[in-house]
Each structure stands twice: as C-alpha cells, then as structure tokens.
Amino acid sequence: MKTIPSKLLLAACIASAFASTALAPAQAATKPAASAAKAGLKVDFQKFTLPNGLDVVFHIDRSDPVVAVNLTAHVGSSREKAGRTGFAHLFEHLLFLESENLGKGGLDKMTARIGGSGANGSTSQDRTNYLQTVPKDALEKMIWAEADKLGWFINTVTDPVLAKEKQVVKNEKRQGVDNAPYGHTRYVINKALYPENHPYNWQVIGSLEDLQNATLDDVKEFYRLWYVPNNVTLVIAGDFDPAQARKWVEKYFSEIKRGAPMQAMAKRPGVVKQTVKLAHEDNFAKLPELTMAWPTVEDLHPDSYALEVLAEYLSDTKRAPFYQVLVEDDKLAPAVQMGNQTAELAGQFMLKVRAFEGKPLDDVAASVDKAFARFEKEAISERDLNRIKAGLETRFYDSVSSVLGKSALLAEYNYLTGNPGHIEEGIRKTLAVTTADVRRVYDTYIKGKPYVATSFVPRGKLELALSGSGKADVVEEKVVQGAENAVDPSANAEYAKTPSSFDRSKEPPYGPAPVVKVPQVWSASLANGMRVVGIENKEVPLVQFEIAIDGGLLLDKPEKVGVANLMARLMTQGTAKKTPQELEEAIQQLGASINVAARSEDVRISVTTLARNYAATLDLVEEILLQPRWDEKEFALIKQSVLSQIRQQEADPNALASIHFNQLVYGKDDPRSRNILGTAASVNAITIDDLKAYYSANLSPSVARMQVVGALPKAAISASLAELNRDWKAKPVTLPAASSAAARAPSKVYFVDVPDAKQSVLRIGYRALAATDPDFYPATVTNYILGGGGFASRLTQQLREGKGYTYGINSGFSGSQSAGPFTIASGVRSNVTLESAQLVKQVLQAYPSTYSAADLETTKNFLIKSNARAFETSAAKLGMLDNISKYGWRADYVKDREGIVKTMTLPQIQSLSQKYLDPSKMVWLVVGDAKTQLPRMQELGFDQPVVIGK
After folding, report:
1. Percent of the chain having pLDDT more than 70?
2. Whole-prediction pTM value?
3. Is residue 810 over pLDDT 80?
4. 103, 119, 229: which is closest to 505 by C-alpha?
5. Which helix (H) or strand (E) segment is 235 a member of?
6. Distance, CA of 535 to CA of 708 (rounded, Å)
7. Which residues contact 44 (CB under 8 A, 6 or more apart)?
8. CA–CA–CA angle 847, 853, 857 (5° rounding)
9. Beta strands in 695-819 (DSSP E)
10. Helix/strand/coil percentages in the chain, nearest 5
C-alpha cells in the first residue's frame, strides 16, 4: 500500500457501509425503501472485453475536467504461498517503481508532470488496485503507463530493487502494526479464526521473516501467474470521449498476452470448534481492549446484508443494546464497535470494546452477554430497521461524489461478480432485509456459537485479561543496530526489451488543455454578523455545510484546557427540547449527519444532508446551537471518554510526537501549544458550569462563518437562515491577536522515550509563517520538490526510494492568521534513526544550491495542471470557501496563486529556501527507544540531546 487503506470504498452505499453512522426515521416503515428505490441508486457504465481477456469499464462524468484511471488485479494475499506472506502487497509496491518505457520513478515522476492526484494503490485479501485522478488531457498518457506496468514491467526488477522495497514494506508494517497500539489484534484473531491452510489465516502485510525471504524468482512467478489481462479490470471514469478512449485501450493493451485460465477459489468460512481466548501484553496500550470474532459469510452472500444491519443495530446508536448496557448502565467503556467484515471467501462478525483504564475484561465480557440477552428479549423493531435503512441514499451519493470513488465501486463489483452494476442488487437486498432476517442471522451465526476473543492489555497488567486466556503468539521484532544491509537500487537493470508492434518508448502527447473554471461563489452577510459563502453544486442531491465559530482552543483558560472540546462534544447530546436519544433519531430520520468539534482556532459544526431535507436539518442545527441541553449524565460519559483518550495518548508514539512538537514550536504561553483534549488534571477539574460559561461568552454570530456547497441556490440558502439570523444574538467576543513566530526553542535534538519502540517518529521544524504572509504560498511552492510533492519529492526519494529507511516522509508549511509551523514528519526504522535525521539534514543543507530549472518546471507543471482537480469534491469546495471567508481572499484566489507559480524564478526559489528551510533554525524531535537510539543522536551536531516528556 502506498498511502491509502487496503479496503477501498466498496459498498459505501450498501451493506458494508453500515459501519458509518446509522440514519433513520421513527415513522412510516415504507419511506426509506421507497425513497432510495425512487432515487435510482446506480452508477451508469459501459463495459467491453478485449480478446486477451482484459475487462474495460467506462463511466462518463462531465462535471469536472478530470478522469480517474483504476487498474484492479484480482489477486491479493489469499493467492499467496505458505512462507511468502505479504507478497501480493510487496508486489504492489514494486509495480510503481519502474517499467521498461516509463523508466525509473515510473508513474510517480509522470504524475508530478501531469498534475495527477498521486499514483496510489492498495492490497486486500482478494485484490490489488492502482488508481489516481488526472486532468483529462493526460488520459492517453495514463493508459500508456498502465499498459506498460502490466506488460513491460518484470524485466526492470533487480535484486537491489527488491531488497530496498522489502525495507519500505517492513517499515509500513512497523508503522501500522508493530509500533501501533493494538496493532497485532487482527493477526491474532485471524490465526485463530481460520485454519492454517486457509488463505485468510495470515495478514495482507505479511510477516517480517516472510518478506525478507522473498526472491526475485518469486516476483517473476507471481507476475506471470496473476498480472495477466484476463485477471485484470481497467476502469476509466470522468470527462472523456469513450470512442477515442477505446481506441487507446486497444492500442496499448491488446498485444499483452492472455494468461492461463483463472480458477475461482471456493468460498470457505472460518472454523472455530470451541471458544478460543488469547491475551497479549501490548507495549503501546494504556487501556484494556476486548475483541471478539465469530465466523460468518463471504461478501455478497444473502445473509451478509442482514448481518450488517444486526451489527449496526446492536452498537451504533443510543438505542443500541450494547451502548445502553456497556456505556450507560455498566459504565465500562465510552463506546462499542461492531461490524460484519466480509471478503470474497469468508467473513467475520467483529465486536471491539476498549474499556476504561483498569477495568477487567471479564466484566466487559459479562456485559456483552447481558447486551446480547437484551437483544434476544427485545429484538429489532420495524422502526429501528427503517432507521438503519434511511441513510442508504445519503451514503450512496457521498460514495459516488468523486470519479475515483465511482471507479473503485465499478472495479470491485466487476471482479466480484463480472457485473460492474451489481451495486443496484446490493441496494435492493439491503432494503429487503426484514426483522425476522436480522434475528435469524443472529441465531445462525452468533447465539451460543464459539468465537475467538483477544485481550490486549497494558504491559504488566495481564490480570485484566479474560480468565482462561492463553498467551497470544505475537512475534515482536528486536531493535538491533546494523541488522539490515545497506541497499542501492539506483543501478539500471540490463535486459532484452520486451517486443512490441510499435515504439512504446515515446510518451504520448497531451490532449487539448482542459478548461478550468473556478466555481462561482456567492456571499451574503446576516444582520447578526454571520458571514455566509456558498457554491451551488448539482452533481449529487446533497447539501454539505459548516458553521465555523472562531475561538476553539484559543479561548480555553490555561488552567481549564479541554473545555472547548468537552463543550463541542456535549452539544450534540440532546437539546432543551429533545433527549439525547430523541435528537439522534431526529437527525437519522433525515438521513443526515451533524457533528460538532472544537479545533485549535474554532468550534465547527459540520453537516451533510439530502437537499430535500436541508430545511429540516438546519432546524435541528439551530436547536443544537441555540438550545443546548447540558445533560449531566452525558457530560460524565464524555468526560470519562476524554480521560481515556488522554491516557491512551501517553503510549502512542504519533500522538506524543504531535503533542511535544506543538509545545516546542509554539512555546508554553501560546494556546496552540496545548493538547486540545487537555490534561488529566485539567479535565478532572472541569465542571459543566465551565462549559456553560464558555458557551455563553464565546459562541456568537459576530465571530461565525458559514460555508455551503450543494444542490440548492443562494436564494434558498439565504431564505432558510432567517430564523437563525433572528434568534442567534450577537455579542462581543475578544479573540487573541494574531501572533507571529516569537522566540524559538533552541535548535537541538529533543527525545521522548517510548521503550522498545519498533520505529522512531521524527518531527523536525520550527514556527515559520502565517497563511496571510506574502511569502506563505511562494514558500509552499518552494517546498514542493523538498517534501510536498509525494513521490516526486527529494525527502521521499532519498529516505524511502533510495535507502528504504521509511514508509513515508513529507514536509509542509501550515498557518492561519497566526504563524504556523514548517514541519517534516516521518516514522523511520529504529536502528537508522540517526542516519535518517542526518540524511534529512543533508537534503535541507543542499536544497538551495541544488534546486534546478528542471525542478522548477516540474513544480510549475504540477501546481498549474492540478488545478483541473482542485474543485472536484464537495470537501475541496468547502476548503476553498473556508479560505475565502477566513482570510478575506478573493473568490478566484486559486487563479492568483496560479499567477504566483507562473512567475516564480530559480533565484526566488533559492532565496526562499535559504530563508525558510534552514536546518539550523529547527527543532529535531525524536519519539523512540531511548535505550538504543538516544546516545547516537549527539552525532547529528546539535550538542547533547534533551530528554523531554518524562
């Protein structure tokens, strides 16, 4: 995987989407099914198959001048051999690196030139995909490149290339599994749930040992078996000419030879003959966590839809039996997670409870039994079933709001069923689920059935694990200095080129340049002082809006940090007119979501709703905003939940890095230096009266901004705000003055000790610029080649592609009206912590003098051409509106920035680099294993490292 999750979008609009918030009515049982069916929830497509077996799917969407290209191979970890686990995922990495005609750097280098979203991919148990969105004029280039990867790749893989990429993948495993709290849970579950010879017995990421054992011959065999046209789906979605695209597909893909016939794998559920209990002392956990898993059915099985409904009903709302028993009655945990997770061959019903500190998991298991007993007694009502179905339409439209999302859905259904349009069948089956179906699948798969239970507890707290648990077999890597050999993948491979009927070495030309239109922005001001900006967008019948109220963490008192966060979370827990449960159901009835969150500089209400339900949803937002409930019971629950979050952060390397980096770059007197959650001491001291006082003093339309994107015109939005304008009275709110970068923390190495960490988390930087500073955007342009350009950046090329030290590294400037930090962030292999920091320092020192005209050309190409993608999604449009309303920028400020890019010169870039990318100005924070890494860090050249965070 490059940067995205292994499970993509599949059925965000059908059964597997029920992991999201339940949305539903308390009234007429027929309404959800009728409205969803009437809406015609489908994605139109054209499909054809080349003589060599390649399935090709087209979807036309002319809303933006972009196309998504998605190449999906029907091979994942389930096709691996014993002793070669993790191979499908390793292969995914290799396929990005080089092909015969793309050359070294492959698609990543081309992406930077054409303004693409970034060549990306993911591997699941059953498939591997490669996908990105590009401006429409680059479609032929993308088709050429994807064909080159499929047919002209394997000769470019050498032993040094393989050795380096093994290190990258092992770093990915360390980052996501070995160095993460509860990271080994899925490994332990699947080992017990599936027999040793079952293809789901092992993890997609594989084991470190198996990854190391992979050979070049393994790579070639895997490629020849699975990366053949008759095992691949190509999806193109967006604004293009299908007749021309078909000619290009035929030209570039047709001569790739068909592989051997593909044999379908038999469906094969997990097997648990008697309950298995396993425990693990987790170095990165501060709270005990119970996970339970029952074997169920595979994806698209008739029972999978009712199992998803069951999981949502049991856990997702305040009416849910598990919420009522474990959270409200027994007060064992802040929440319960549950879902029926399906793959092509099998599925598993998963329950996860991260308990409060010190709570025995035997108590949690007893409450689980009580919650199941409550369900057996009360069952699921028609009202609750329809509540769950009601959000189907909203979730569907949200999942298809980008061409990339649509391409993923079409590809997934094609490899699973041969029919990209199977999404309609999935929706039909979800809407057909009955209360009897829900009870039947519970009785069939869960009630009284053996299961796998894991107890992940803090180190030294084994007594919290379930009674009768055996020791989980978790392999933990030892940090050994010099354990890996140095790698050099830079040498060119020597090989006879794969023949072709035409010269493939010539990159195709661009098509006609896309016409980039900045969305038309409207604005209005209410008499109470709230400013409103909006964009009418009819691509999907949704409305998304935000109300940002300036303040947030900035207005917390130093001795009561955490008030803004607690207040924001409490605001959706009922109103003066509605109990918490009644408010939740009212929101769900509309198929809407309403969230309130405090951030460092504002409190933000974020809303998504169907356009036809916008007025009713806005009524609920007004009620939440103007008539808070101040529910003492909910306050106590939220407070306990926040205290658990704070406790867990104490062992999470990435959380520790963020907390301590902010303290170093902002200084203790700046509110931004503080953890928005607060500390255990400050949260314990907060009362509900503190929340009321914050609300009364600071939530005012005079410091509020509203951004709206959706399928309604300005007139409708403006008219809808009359009551809010009348009822929300303005009051003076004094915000802290914007602040510049003051005295800096000394440029030293600062070290936070996480004993036995498998990676070191690096945060390097200093407080630099405000977003409103004239140098801010030019500095951002300057940073593109350093660390802002993904795989085009020097930091990635040096630390990941050149050395295999990290899975990922990036750099960037952030800021607001006040100066924000320049940050370099990465997680690196523990035993190269010093070497990674030295390499970052060398790259920074050399950057001004080595930045070239070619670098500037790449930067300009990307930043100008990528504007074709700048406004595709509602989230992008909301971000643009937020900038306009917050900073007073012009509606077409994107064009202003384009002008800056076009006029940037090499001397200007070099001058900005010297001014803003000076390593001697920066703090060098390391969060890792002090025992092995702290003594070495003095060699970085910043005197004796300073240990902090004790």
Report:
1. 96
2. 0.92
3. yes
4. 103
5. strand 232-238
6. 6
7. 59, 60
8. 110
9. 704-710, 749-753, 759-769, 806-813
10. 45, 15, 35
How far apart, in whole angstroms, are the C-alpha atoms of residue 582 and residue 574?
A: 7
SS3 340: strand
Tokens of 435: 């209360």
Treating both helix axes as pointing N-terminal to C-terminal, what angle do 853-865 and 106-114 enclose, rounded to 10 degrees?
70
User: According to the model, what pLDDT value does residue 258 have?
Assistant: 97
Confidence of residue 12 (pLDDT cuts 50, 70, 90): very low
For residue 581, report the phi and psi dihedrals to the nearest 5 degrees.
-70, -40
- pLDDT at residue 117 greater than cutoff 60: yes
Q: Which residue has the tokens 């680099």?
A: 913
Amino acid found at 565: N
pLDDT given at position 19: 28
What are the CA-CA distances from residue 514 to residues 138, 140, 899 (Å)? Answer: 10, 14, 17
- Per the CB < 8 A criterion, the answer to whether 138 and 116 are in contact is yes
What pLDDT score does 4 carry?
Answer: 30
Question: What backbone phi and psi angles, to 5 degrees, belong to 603?
Answer: -110, 130
Rounded CA-CA distance 202/180 in Å is 18
The pLDDT value recorded for residue 1 is 52
- Measure Cα distances from 238 to 8, 666, 872 in Å: 19, 44, 11
**Contacts of range 888-896, beta carbons closer than 8 Å, 24 or more positions apart:** 891/518, 891/520, 891/521, 891/523, 892/518, 894/518, 894/867, 894/870, 895/518
Task: Give the whole-angstrom CA distance, residue 343 versus residue 193.
Answer: 14
Give the per-residue pLDDT at 105: 83
CA distances from 229 to 49, 126, 177, 554, 716 (A): 10, 17, 33, 56, 51
For residue range 485-543, what is the model confidence (pLDDT) as tens digits?
777 777 787 888 999 999 999 999 999 999 888 899 999 999 999 999 999 999 889 99
Spatial distance between the Cα atoms of 565 and 543, rounded to a whole number of angstroms: 26
Is-contact 309 18, C-beta < 8 A? yes
- How far apart (Å, rounded) are the C-alpha atoms in residues 289 and 280? 10
Per-residue pLDDT of 835-853, as tens digits, reads: 999 999 999 999 999 999 9
